[in-house]
Amino acid sequence: MKIQEVKVFVSCPGRNFVTVKVITDEGVYGLGDATLNGREMAVVAYLEEHIIPCLLGRDPQQIEDIWQYLYKGAYWRKGPVTMAAIGGIDMALWDIKGKIAGLPVYQLLGGKSRESVMVYGHANGETIKETLDNLGKLIDQGFKAVRLQCAIPGLEGTYGTLGEKKDYYELQSDRPLPPEQLWSTSKYMNFIPELFEQARQQYGYAVQLVHDVHSRLTPIEAANLGKLLEPYKLLFLEDASPADNQDGYQIIRNHTTTPLAIGEVFNTVWDAKDLIVNQAIDYLRIASTHGGGITPLKKIANFADMFNVRMAPHGAPDLSPICHAAHAHLNIWAPNFGIQEFIGFGTEKLNSVFSHPLSFDNGYIRLQDKPGLGVEYHEEEAAKYKYKRSYLPVTRLEDGTLWFW
């Protein structure tokens, strides 16, 4: 069996997605997600100009060798564009391997460690009342864990919410340029503890709660927030501070017992190695798409397990159902799986393009036993939704200084 053709599709059924299809000379094909939100076409060029010519004629079952070839063989290693491109190919090869074997991918990884995947939903709001009303709705749907994000008084369009109640993607429909949002650390720090205090007063401690700082704080500010939130027993505080200088997480760790999660912008184990070894984090949120695929994620999970770090993969709406399926297979297998971010199964448009083997049941994701990843991509439907250039927002402090979004 040889790789005969590799196709790259870019479609926008609500969000832009880069989908890779690896086709063999025996007609078996595999699908992968190579989406990099806001930089999609850079990954497309990397695939078409640099990766695909190196794959034609290769044995698709040699997954490890192909991964090493694409990673080490480029010399210019790591980075989000490179790793998203490799990730899309790697997922597709695991999909092919599973179809040849007649087994779901999790069986090839080593089998099940659990029957279903615990998830957390998002409760957002412009006010504390609206946020908590949405928390109640998710609890009624069966969620056992929920992330709370609320607009900060005096700041329009805080992360997780938007003043105009639109997705930031919709705000770029007429003139696609990065939306800009204001940030004030003092207003945020004075407000967020109240959100969690009221959440616990209203709903008690049966539901597990999560909050995403989205890298807006310095380490000592993040340490202070973690300490303020300790009485409310969060499952974890996500992206409390940027981890470019990983020593900063030791500052946070030394001052609070609130569990810490990070990793959605990580691309390799080297981004997380010191955090894991030093046990400065509790959950690792690296995504299969942005982390180079299933092959490295399995290794990273095994490495993290030795240091009591659990896997909690990124689950944003700018990852396609192929990535979400890959995560489901990894999560079913991983002995140190923690929890999966879950934003729902998308819109009617999205579901017309992707068919997937996932279902939601009382706070858990269940995975059908289908060969490979179990996802189908409907090319004719996808062609109806043309690519639209878009960007993630940027953030400025109230004096105009550019800050972390």
Can you describe this structure?
The chain is of the alpha/beta class. It folds into two domains: 3-106, Enolase-like, domain 1 (2-Layer Sandwich); 108-369, TIM Barrel (Alpha-Beta Barrel), CATH 3.20.20. 36% of the residues lie in helices and 19% in strands. It has 13 helices and 18 strands. The strands form four sheets. Strands 4, 5, 7, 8, 9, 10, 11, 12, 14 and 15 form a ten-stranded mixed β-sheet that branches. Helix 8 links the parallel strand 8 and strand 9. It is globular. 47% of the residues are buried. The mean pLDDT is 95.
Write the layout of secondary structure elements.
Layout: E1 3-11, E2 17-24, E3 29-33, H1 40-55, H2 63-72, H3 80-101, H4 105-109, E4 117-125, H5 128-140, E5 145-150, E6 180-183, H6 185-203, E7 208-212, H7 219-229, E8 236-238, H8 248-255, E9 260-262, H9 273-277, E10 283-284, H10 294-305, E11 310-311, H11 321-333, E12 340-341, H12 348-353, E13 354-355, E14 358-361, E15 364-367, E16 376-377, H13 379-382, E17 394-397, E18 402-403
Parallel strand pairs: 4-5, 4-12, 5-7, 6-17, 7-8, 8-9, 9-10, 10-11
Antiparallel strand pairs: 1-2, 2-3, 4-15, 13-16, 14-15, 17-18
